[in-house]
Design brief:
Rieske Iron-sulfur Protein; Naphthalene 1,2-dioxygenase Alpha Subunit, Chain A, domain 1; 4-stranded antiparallel β-sheet; binds FE2/S2 (inorganic) cluster; binds fe (iii) ion
């Protein structure tokens, strides 16, 4: 075994028992593992940095992080560039602002200046200083990440010659397209993202995002006891039926939970959903941010199979490896209607026991103002900083990170034996590794297997 040794003589492969499907808890708190992740995970995969509607005009920029590296995400001549926020002169951070607009980024230390695309522009006393004498001007620009835009979402990677973003998504793209690429106008952010720090390892949040629906019935149990989901069911407040659906796993650690809408459609129409056409269902219960008349857009942008899945069991919660969660959910309201919510989170590592939770709230560009307001209110209530649901989650992750530090606790394991491999629901129109039924460990175990594959790759 040529695998690199950790300080205690063990290897990454010792942390994960592929036969028993267990992961050592210390994986969630160890500084050495964190350092390796910076290189093997955050240095290699595609990372979500934001949405192009955050920087609509030339010169607009935001500061974001790719692992521990700060980057400037800026628009230049219409295109989006991601530059390492490190001055090539002596390593000063170039921008310290979270967001802004400028055509020239000037380092406050000695004044080297760069364009929004990272190109070196010049320095004070340039002739005596650098270019032309020591090195060519074109060698002094800011290091560039490889960038791709997908549904307006900005992804970047340092893996310049690595897999394309499409290959990285694989079969999961069919499902993500249903969320991010379904409308003519596209999604837009409903303001700058919420950001807050949670004292937890990024993987506690990351692996949960790989479609752990199981915790909903326990940790978020109040949803069915005091919330509108109780009304959704008629009377019982039993959330269990809400958990059924098709679960999509990915060899690249992505995961989607496609949750059955039939109960909602039955309540809204008083009819058996089997008797309704795909179009009728999508007009009664359009995707979040869309209205009944948006069906023509859906039909234009999605395949008949995608429409069928959208009307039956659309992707509602899940994640994109390594650190993204999406929630495109249909939330029952007190008056019996349904309001959608569209959020994306990134759990940005800030050391082995700290993460920054970034919460973007989206609407469709064409979402009518009244619906837009309802969606934003709904999302703020349930998700992010003030969100009732995610206050539950951000309470568990720090405790897991703390137990992972205990001299005994660190040798405990996280267990993923509930693998069912039930196969696709009958008639399921979508591709990929799909398993029918109630939530289980399949998707999360795929997440850990990919983590292991990357961490042990040459
Ligand atoms: Fe930036 Fe010197 S460190 S100009
Ligand atoms: Fe949760």
């Amino acid at each position: 075994n040529t695998e690199r040794k950790l300080a205690d003589g063990s290897t990454i492969s010792d942390l994960i028992d592929l036969e028993r499907r267990e992961v050592q808890l210390r994986t969630l708190a160890d500084r050495e593992i964190y350092e390796i992740e910076q290189d093997k995970i955050f240095g290699k995969t595609w990372l979500l940095l934001g949405h192009e509607s955050e920087i609509p005009d030339d010169g607009n920029f935001i500061q974001r992080f790719m692992g521990d590296d700060s980057v400037i995400v800026a628009r230049h001549k219409g295109e989006v560039f991601v530059s390492l926020n490190v001055c090539p002169h002596r390593g000063m951070k170039i921008t310290t602002q979270d967001a802004g607009s400028t055509s020239i980024h000037k380092c406050i230390y000695h004044g080297w200046a760069f364009r929004s695309n990272g190109e070196f522009l010049g320095s004070p006393v340039a002739d005596q200083c650098m270019h032309g004498k020591i090195r060519g001007k074109d060698e002094l620009g800011l290091q560039q990440a490889r960038v791709t835009l997908y549904g307006g979402l900005i992804f970047a990677t340092w893996n310049i010659d690595g897999p394309s973003f499409e290959d990285f998504l694989g079969d999961a793209k069919w499902y993500y397209d249903m969320l991010f690429c379904r409308s003519d106008g596209g999604m837009v952010v409903a303001g700058p993202p919420q950001r807050f720090v949670v004292r937890a390892n990024w993987k506690a949040a990351g692996e949960q995002s790989a479609a752990d629906g199981f915790h909903t019935l326990m940790l978020h149990r109040w949803l069915g006891e005091v919330g509108n989901y109780k009304k959704d069911d008629g009377e019982s407040g039993d959330l269990t039926p809400e958990m059924f659906g098709a679960e999509v796993s990915s060899p690249h650690g992505h995961a989607l939970r496609c949750i059955d809408l039939n109960r909602k459609i039955r309540r809204l129409t008083g009819k058996d959903p089997e008797e309704l056409s795909v179009e009728e269902k999508l007009r009664v219960l359009p995707p979040p941010g869309m209205t009944a008349d948006a069906f023509t857009q859906l039909k234009k942008n999605l395949s008949p199979e995608q429409l069928e899945a959208m009307a039956w069991m659309p992707p509602q919660v899940g994640g994109m490896f390594p650190n993204v969660l999406f929630g495109f959910v249909y939330i029952p309201q007190a008056d019996g209607s349904v309001v959608g919510s569209m959020t994306l989170h990134a759990y940005v590592p800030k050391g082995p026991d700290k993460l920054e939770f970034i919460n973007w709230i989206f609407v469709e560009k064409d979402t009518p103002p009244e619906l837009r307001e309802k969606m934003v209110m709904q999302t703020i209530q349930l998700f992010g900083t003030s969100g009732m649901v995610e206050q539950d989650d951000s309470d568990t992750w720090p405790h897991m990170t703390l137990t992972a530090k205990g001299p005994q606790g660190r040798h405990s394991t996280m267990k993923y034996q509930a693998i069912y491999e039930t196969g696709k629901p009958e008639g399921w129109p979508g591709p990929g590794i799909v398993n029918e039924g109630f939530t289980k460990d399949d998707t999360q175990w795929h997440w850990w297997k990919y983590w292991h594959a990357l961490m042990t790759a040459e």
